[in-house]
Every structure is written in C-alpha cells, then in structure tokens.
C-alpha cells in the first residue's frame, strides 16, 4: 500500500510515458494484422496453390490472430496506466496541498502521517502556555473518537471543547484544529490513492500472456475478461456512459471528432461493442472495434461448445404401455441443461464462420476489403452489418435489407447476395469505388404469419434510418455518394417504413429497390420520399402470389398496392428470377438491373 511519501514522490508522467509506449505497440500490432490480412495473404492466395500454400495461409492466419490479441492486450495496458495516472493526480494534489499547508504553519509531518503542532496561546487563569501536540489523520475528521486531547485534562471531544473558542479559560490550542485538518487531508489522500492502486493493480496483474507464440481461444476469452475487469476498475477515468446513446449521428460524429487520438483508442479498446455500433463515426474505427468483439465472442462460444458433454445414450429406455416413449433420466437432464444452448452455439458459430471467411478474404482476391460495422450474436436471432468496400469513400453505396427468416446462423446466403451485387456493380463502373452492405440489424420475422404483422418493421425502421443517416455523416454529406437501399421480401417493408422516419433529415437514399416485396407500408411510390422515378421493383416467377398473400395482411387492406403493381407508380424492372430468392444469380438480367440502379446507370435498366 502506498505511503504518503510514495504518493508525494511518484512521477505520474512515467506512467503516461509507459502508456504511450504500450499504445504504440497496440497500434503497430493492429497495422501489422491488417498488413498480414490484406497484403501477405492476398499475394499467397493469388499466386500459390497446393499444400504448401495452405500451410502458409494457416500460419499467416495464426499470425494475424496473434496481432489481434496484442492489439487488444497492449491497448488495455495503455488504458490502465493512463487511468492510474489520471486518477492518482487528484489525491497527489490534495496531499501536496496538505504538506504545503503544514510547512506554512510550521507544523511537522511525521513518517506515519501524524502532524506535530507547537504550543499556542496561554491559559488566562494560570498564564501557562497551552502545549502543542500531535494530530493523527482519521476518516472521521475533527469528530474522530480517537482524536488527541485538545488540552491536557480537558477530554478529547471537539464538541465539548471547541478549539480556540475560549482561549485562556480552558480552551484548546488553536493550532490543534489546523493540524488535525492537515492530518486528515494527508490520510484521506493516502486512502484514496490506496483504493485507486488496488483497483488498477488487480487489473494489471491479469494483463499477461501465456508463454509461446500461439494465441488460442482461451487467450482471446481471457482478453474479454481483462476488458471487463478494466471497465470496472477504470469507470472513473473512462466510462461507457461517456459514449453517446440515442443521439443524432451528427452528435455522435462531433463527440468522436472532439476526442484526442489516445482517447479514441481507449474508448475503442475498452468498449468495442459500443464504439463498433456507433452510427456516424468512421467505418475503419467500427470495423476494428467489431473485429475485436467478433474474435473474442467466437473464442468464447467455441470454448463453451467444446465443454458441453456428449449426449448420453440411450435416449429412449422403452415405450410405455400406451405407446408413450420413456427417456433415460441422464438424457433428460442433459436435454434440459444443454440441448438448447448447444443448438444456439452451433448456429452462431456456423454464421460466424461465414462472416470470418469473408473477413479473411483480402482485397485483391476478386472482392474489396470487408468492414464489420456491427456484430452481436445473442440479440434476438443475431445482428450483423458487413460491408464490401469502405462505404465512407464509396462513389456508389448499396444497403441490402434481408427479409423473413433471416438469422445469424444462416447469414451466409445474404452475404453471398451482397457479394454478387458488388461484383455486378463494380463491373459496370470499374473505375469507381463501390460498397455493398448486408444490413441485418433488426429482429426479422421467423415465419410467414409473423411477416404479416408490422411489429418487426416498426422496430427496425428507425434503426435503418439511423444507419443511413450515420453513413451519410461519415461520408461527408448527401452528395458524396450515390446511395441505394434494397429491401428483399419483408426487408422492403422495413425499408418502406424507414422512409417515414426522420423525414427532416432528407430522403432515405437516392434510389430504393424492392425485391419480392409484400408491401412497403405506403400507397404509392411517391410516398417514399425519393421521387417515383427512383423507386424500383422486381418479382420472380410465382413470387407475385406469395407476396400478395402476405402483403394484403401486412398492408392496408383491399386498397393495398405492392411495388410490382402498375398502380404503385414505380419502375418495374424485368426479372428472370425463378423464385422468391433467385434474384442474385450472376449472369442473369435480375442481377444486372439491380447493379445498374446501384451504379446510377438508370438508362441501362430493362423495364418490364
């Protein structure tokens, strides 16, 4: 435990200088991870084949994982040291002020923190000087039951013997109260420093890696635990409540831009999920934060899944007299404890493997670099926002909103659709930057009956609008990129409802595409706020019956119009899709028409 001498002498700049060093290692590790992913792996995958290439890829994947871990852990050390220095500054200042007061008053501060004060005044009865004494610091201040006597023989209660109130009539030494105040200030400063030291030393003791060169799941899971410990310890230095919640994207951006680079790094390291979900800040920042969340979550789930014992056998013991099945008690216990969780973990990891496969595909492999703009496995059926190419710098940006039955566990198909959209659009405008985004940030209906209700759209529409506003903010304004929102099936309902949100912020996008739509919750294309000439719709073979049946329930009754109806007033695009999910096959007209809209080449679209 620190003494007052140690608190006085500690050089806080040494902590901050050390923090700077750890911060540089963290930043360098992040840059090295990106270099491995986007340069080294890309070259091997482009030019090498065979077992040697596969082995090299595995080694480089491990190296990138190591750098990810270093980025996180070194960032936590940096934040812990900065937090420790920042918090110790206050008690150190209080201590130095108390020591200065003691020096000015000619008091002596002893090694144990007690304060010796001289004689003061005289007793008017016997004219004898009132003796000096020693004050000991206490958390109770002047009213401490252990405070020293103020005057010999007068007891030790300041209430009964106020210092200096009746000097010469048995009153106390006037120096005693001042000395007691100094002693209390010293003790309080040391207690505060001890509490701070205890919080941070516990965290720093945990910030260490196992020996060896291979970062494994347990290391990444431990990094998540380290982050939680530091969140608890450093709450007075940097808190989650500092991060904007429920504000406009412009306010989010203003908050972020007002931080120093070191502060940005600390928030992103300590609260990666919150920073990663913050609309309006740069996509590169969100991607780094969400990759941290993703890696640690995947490691945690894989560890948990591996720890679930095998399903006991036999499951069935016998059949009852009436044909009922009798299960073994061991199997019943396992079923109640593990079966549902095991299914969740397997589903999440299946979807996460698809996301990881896309994240690990480097630029130069036929697709641009991917950006993970949000990730949460456990909210409803999961949350994923993943961009092909950086939307902040894109000339053309498309946001694809999936529909009914979308889940993290099955996200691979939706990622494939935005891959196809990027390839098609990029082929039409090869000298321009294109970004296509899978936006799954709402609780999609799990079945057709649920898709006939408005609830999912009402909850998802404001979130989609916020994301679109944030993308525009990060891009630098509405004219910096040509934007398209594409809703498939119920996703088009969410998109349509989002156009009615925050109309004062301007149109939801430049163009809106409804694919296999059961309705957009508006009567006419002109109600979507982008001009009916910028509303596009297509359906597949047999799709009309499906969406119309659902649409009449989700919409406004008999007068309801779906986007592929002539009366809706938008552009009906030619489609050669064979069914409700067949709109993204390379080489087909359906995909070409979508790409032409995304690229802003409206005159190339084939209308039905």
TrEMBL record:
Chain segments annotated as coiled-coil in the UniProt record: 46-73
Keyword Hydrolase: yes
Top-rank taxon: Bacteria
InterPro entries, sorted: AB_hydrolase_fold, DUF1023
GO MF term (any one): hydrolase activity
Keywords noted in UniProt: Coiled coil, Hydrolase
SUPFAM superfamilies: alpha/beta-Hydrolases
Record flagged with keyword Coiled coil: yes
DUF1023 domain residues: 380-545
Name under which the protein is recorded: Alpha/beta hydrolase
Natural source organism: Streptomyces lateritius
